[in-house]
């Protein structure tokens, strides 16, 4: 329930705040589904946890260049530590693929 409320809030913010028209589809998905925990900054639990466990250079998902699309799909579907799994009814496979493509766009 909280996830839906937060997701709706983020979606409404994105719609009214203007995401650039040329932004990749995965960016909107990230903002709507992931940013509440994984955006940059100290108030995001996922980012803070990654900074503690992986180091500050691996904390902000949007800035990483080492993520693999298969790993992203696995973590989203299965969950990891405090992160709950996301069912296909919450983020479908096509959207998950777009999200993985967005997060791996700068991959080395």
Can you tell me about this structure?
This protein has 108 residues and is mostly helical. It has one domain (2-103): Cytochrome Bc1 Complex, Chain D, domain 2. The chain has six helices and no strands. It has helices spanning 2-17, 25-33, 35-38, 45-54, 69-78, 93-103. The longest helix has 16 residues, at 2-17. The radius of gyration is 13 Å and the shape is globular.
Q: Which terms summarize this structure?
A:
108 residues; mainly alpha; Cytochrome Bc1 Complex, Chain D, domain 2; 6 helices
Find the count of extended strands (DSSP E, 2+ residues).
0
The CATH superfamily turns out to be Cytochrome c-like domain
| Biggest β-sheet description | none
Task: State the domain count.
Answer: 1
Q: What structural class should be given to the helix and strand makeup?
A: mainly alpha
Could you tell me the CATH topology label.
Cytochrome Bc1 Complex, Chain D, domain 2
For the record, what CATH class applies? Mainly Alpha
Write down the overall mean pLDDT: 86
CATH architecture label name: Orthogonal Bundle
- Parts with pLDDT < 50 across at least 5 consecutive residues: none
Q: Which percent range fits the helix content?
A: 55-70%
